[in-house]
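Late entry, evening session. Most of the bench is empty. Finally got around to the prediction I had been postponing all week. Sequence below, unchanged from the version circulated by S.P.
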Amino acid sequence: MSLKMPEPDAAVLARRSEIAVALRAIVAGEGVIDDVDALRVYESDGLTAYRQHPMLVVLPQTTAQVAAILRYCDENRVRVVPRGSGTSLSGGALPLADAVLLGLAKLNRIVEVDLANRVAVVQPGVTNLAVTRAVEADGFYYAPDPSSQIACSIGGNVAENSGGVHCLKYGLTTNNVLGVELVLMSGEILRLGGRQLDSSGLDLLGVIVGSEGLLGVVTEVIVRLLPKPETARALLIGFSSVEGAGNCVAEVIAAGIIPAGMEMMDRLAVQAAEAFVKVGYPLDVAALLIVELDGSEAECSELIGEVERIAHANGAVSVRISQDEEERLAFWAGRKSAFPAVGRLAPDYYCMDGTIPRRRLPEVLTRMAELSNQYGLEVANVFHAGDGNLHPLILYDANQPGQLDRAEAFGADILRLCVKVGGVLTGEHGVGVEKRDLMPEMFSNVDLEHQEGLKHAFDPQMLLNPGKVFPNLHRCAELGRMHIHAGQVPFPDIPRF
């Protein structure tokens, strides 16, 4: 593994058996996993290029158990890596050799459905899709819908501030979470937010959503439910150039139209998706837009006409409008299956996540094509076009020497490009370990020091999910762990985490 992570603490590793006994006193039965072969299941998350066995895995079933585990680890200076379903694509749940991996899969109950107040109270191990399944018979749904929604957990969604194809109109996880129950590293249990839309005082809920497990462990979530719209229809629009598709996206938004979803796939992604699900995607187009509009029947009909007009004005070569719910879902089936579909084209692929201003989309796609030629690796583009959230899929073969390194370098250049054109390093996948060392591309040292100061306020010993997000320990001197003389860091050539 080329990625540098914090060095294991030999003193903690020497106490492995002692720690396992203590954790079994908190979580009895099969709640602690210490068998080497069994630990292999947890050696990576969705970023499978990097693997590391955890020291131990503990699987609590209650908030009280989570609190007791964290309190013990805090008192004994044992690192903890929280984990949901393990679908993170940024290495957010990558274990450490000397850390306890805290799996939340057994906290999987829907505690309450309150349709009168349009909320549901769920534990973090509940899958994203399960929330909608629980309320759809009553005409409600949960809006954030990542492509992995059949498997990803609500707790993981909160950690990464996940989005999905409908986040353009209905927002990311942060816009759909009203409250959380949070356990600090000290074992203290807090409740932030509630069933109301806004709470008084500091917006600590906004701090927690998207904090990637660095500040605390979420054990309960209050999510917002939305009524199913009267009508939802989708357009499948093909373009002979990616520039035309990009311009169409910009003009639709500029016209004041906010689609429920607006997705784009390039030729390679379209061909892979069609071969995988066979839903009738046109194969002779350079780019394909899926635009979904919802609301009343009259509103949808009017907006469909306007989107169709804008599409033709930007060189659309085909327009297909869904005629019923089955066809609308078929349009989305290809997009939702794009990642596994592309996985059939090469032994491995590297999924990126960056966000750019919509107006720069044609320019960025052109530059990505140039980078593809430069690195000798194909890239399939699947992304949330409406909010400029790119998901390039870089194809490579890990069995070929040097290809993983080239794929990582290619991906890093894509993210640098995103920042250069006024975008950001991540849209919904988080920073994790994948983008950790690129944080200085976007943030100054002062910015990073403030972020780490927030981390220190919640977790003074820096035990929760270490090695993620922050490229180095900017605050070592302030925390009394290093002597700084005349502003010079000793041994500056040594990587610090």
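Two things to note before I forget:
Confidence is low (pLDDT under 50) at residues 473-487, 489-497.
The first strand starts at residue 32 and ends at 33.
Will write this up properly tomorrow.
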